[in-house]
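Section 5.1 Outputs to date
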Amino acid sequence: MNRSSRASLRWPTLFIVLTLGLAACSGDQTITAEKRTPIPIPGSALTVQGTPGTFGGTLAVALPEEITTFNPYYQADYSTREVLHQLYAPLIGFNPITGKTLPQEGLAESWEAVGKVVTIKMRQGLSFSDGTPIRADDVIFSLSVALDPEVKAPVADMLAVSSRLPDVTKVDDRTIQLEFPEPYPAIGYVLSRVPVICAGPDPEKTINKGRFEEVLALTTAPESIACSGPFCIGSYEKGKSIRLNYNPNYWKVDSQSLRLPYLDHIEYTFGMSNDDIVKGLQAGTVSLSCRLDPKTFTTLGESGAKYQTKDLGVGYGTWQLFGNLNASLAADKVKV
């Protein structure tokens, strides 16, 4: 199968859009907040409007499969995408409900397309979870990984215009330019599919090293991964679970100028059976589950003592359909 025939990358938000449109949430009222060390908030931080929430707590999430990578550019299954969505922030925001891009709600302060050239300027003073500044070099590194043919990133297909990938240039520490072979009207949406990963303390050395297919493999020490999203990795037990901690340097604040996220942790457990999920929801040990089959969803009913079920409607998950083009295969032998 060639690259252009693969399904495009999707980043569904666990708390808003679920692949099958079904969710079950627990209603634990006991919230204990961890003490957070105050870190100066940069002037370019994004303020999220709305009613302020409550800090603290751990969200316990049941996922159907084990994660397969820490690299957000690899084609990955649902469970992997859900976890990585919490670890890496995109250049530009996107609202999956309205289907519209949100130019000022990503790591980029602004972007502009003039003819064939797209100029991206990053917010000033932002940092990854380990305190490393978020620079133009990190965007160059992210795009280098995304465009590497060995990685086979779905977003690489979206960045190609007339079968040609863009030329990527660093203008200064905050500015990047992409030059396409012709104007690209849909580039805003595509940039919302570009999560930013860290190039480390020596970006030039990291980029020149190449071997981008090895970046952020599961063998990477979780504590060494610097994250741009609301959470970073606290611990990972292969085949069992992954625990995320809040990112102390996250670049969004609430309407009271308090640094987000509100949650202290997200605990993902892999491969729970439907029976265990139902028991966990009923006991309050599971906060959220998705991709429940209709039978399980019906068994739970509309609500219980410690949970509620919600039908969130149509999701933005990815479905793939493969056709057998072997003309010699008899139609009556094909099974669907």
